[in-house]
Amino acid sequence: MRNSIFVILLVTFSCFLVKAQEQLTWEDFADVSFEPVYNKKYDVNFLMPKFGEKIQSYQGKQVGIKGYFLDISGSGEVFLVSQNPMASCFFCGAAGPETIVEVAFKEKPSFKTDQIVKVMGILELNVNNVNHCNYILKEAKGQLVN
């Protein structure tokens, strides 16, 4: 009887852990559209995100994404995870802003650009700060996949 209760508790706890962190795909991040909005500070129109209901449901939650690690500052200050490698990422004009996630790591990672990583963190949907990406993972940890 004790073993049965232990197994039931173990399964229940395992299910909770699986639900505590959602593994997202790049298709999930594509649940966004963009509208031009005038920005007074920069005197220009920016394409600002309108997030869909599905991606909004992950706001503030622990999520993970697998992609290419990019150190776009070159000095270890600005990190992204991208659907595509550096040569064909958003900044090279080969993809949209929904294909990158800005990452604020708890500890500076030792990854190198274009390594495939899995990153977990708290998702923030950035609606109006043009100095940051539309998607930000805060308090993030990562692991090398390849």
Sum this structure up briefly.
This protein has 146 residues and is α+β, with helices and mostly antiparallel strands. The chain is 18% helix and 40% strand.
**Number of DSSP helices?**
3
Any idea of the CATH class? Mainly Beta
**CATH-defined topology:** OB fold (Dihydrolipoamide Acetyltransferase, E2P)
Task: Give the beta-strand count.
Answer: 8
The biggest beta sheet is recorded as: 5 strands, mixed, barrel
Could you explain how this protein is built, in words?
This protein has one domain: OB fold (Dihydrolipoamide Acetyltransferase, E2P). The radius of gyration is 18 Å and the shape is globular. It is α+β, with helices and mostly antiparallel strands. It is built from three helices and eight strands; from the N terminus they run αβαββαβββββ. The model is unreliable at 6-19 (pLDDT under 50). Helix content is 18%, strand content 40%. The strands form two sheets. It has a five-stranded mixed beta barrel with strand order 4-5-6-8-7. It starts with a helix and ends with a strand.
Keyword list:
146 residues, alpha+beta, OB fold (Dihydrolipoamide Acetyltransferase, E2P), 5-stranded mixed β-barrel, two-stranded antiparallel sheet, 3 helices, 8 strands, 18% helix, DUF3299 domain-containing protein
Topology (elements, then pairings):
Blueprint: H1 2-20, E1 22-23, H2 26-29, E2 32-39, E3 44-51, H3 53-56, E4 62-71, E5 79-82, E6 100-105, E7 116-125, E8 135-144
